[in-house]
Amino acid sequence: MTVSTNSPDLFPEPVHRGRSCTWENSNATATAALQRILNHNHGRWHVYINDKRFHSHTAHNVLTLWALGGNETELEASYKESSKYHKPAIVPPGKISRKNWKEYLGDASYYQAYLDFFRDEVKENGIKLSLEEYIFSKNANVACRTVKSPDMLSRMLDQLMHPLIHLGFACEFGQPGLIAEGLAYVAVHKDSSRAVITIEEGEPASDCASSQTDTFTVLKRVIEDPDLGLAKFEGYLETAKKLGEKIKAYATQWSLEGSIDARIEELAWITTMMYGIGGWEGPDKKLNADFFHFHLLTSSMSLSSLATYLNPASQRLLLRNYFNSFLVWYVARGRATINIERFYMDDAGSSLAKVSESSILLSENGTDVTVESIADSKSWSTLRYEAIHHPDEHFSSLQRPLLHYSKMYGETPKGTFANSILDGAEELDGSLFLRVARLTSERTTWRGDGQLDPQWDYRGFYSDESKKHRC
Q: In 3D, which of 189, 197, 114 has the Cα closest to residue 159?
């Protein structure tokens, strides 16, 4: 089944909204190519590229490349490559309507029907109301009479939060067509987080500023709980079933009072620490670039964009449930060591060699530069160039949040977190994001001929060796 669209209403030129992230691209030709690809991709391919429920990353890839400054040729090449292994859209068994939309949730064969339905809903009600009604409302999460619980919040966090990531891109770039795709993504995913989902978040107290519990404090408590240790990876769903009640009890200690932006910033720091500091195993070893952890870092960038469309109660539900799921993944992967002091002491990137941005010759100024010739000059300019041209589709999606967080929080001075109970937190500063990006670059090196070494790690953090420097 092939569906062609050519609607500027579905895929308009990206426009910044609220706290949206920084974009490097202002090239009209690249923007036109982006819109053309998104239109062509919409409805043409299934959400899953195979029967194992592996996801299509096409929209994520081209939007990331565009935001990093990719040109028309680079965007088209990315789409051409991803199209080679996509699964065409299939004719669904039936149509989806407001009367029956809860009846076929989790059934991937209905993806196209859900896409058609949500496209109409977004067109009629807009992005904000569609998100509120079909993700965050009680009706979208609680059983009603003979209809089982829809669990849309849980579905949004399924499979390493890919539905959330898609909705994050849709909101960041203001793409109604991607919102419809994202809602359809959610609808055909499983309710794997049901055991740890919070359906209703109370109003934050106005007089508790002095007793707020931050994510660092919760993380410390989770690390020190002997009942949360696992000897091997048992899977997210099994971990949620087995330990979800206890993990959720810790997660709900996180205070959501005050600025939503400040709470989102907490998640930016903690997801970066989990992936980067958690994956660092010493100065003579490459980063343990955990495949599961890096998806959590990538997904964290979706929060600020999605929050701009939500009311305050839904914003809190979003962050609460994200943190619940984050902690399940942290425990499921073996509770990676977060030794901040040793990371800053021994990190190979700690010298942060000063590189003049103007001295880096990049493709956009007409000069061809090989990856090898800039490999020793790991400024953000070179890392951005590398991300655009790297053949692994996940690489750019991981480096871009680190670039964004560096721009947002890169001037944070050492000592900012001195009052935290998390060991070594006083050492943290804004260089964290560049350090982690550099370590990622070193771990995911490629030979420049399109040939890749194994890019990501799956061994987790279960061995005694990985616990040597636990905080």
A: 189
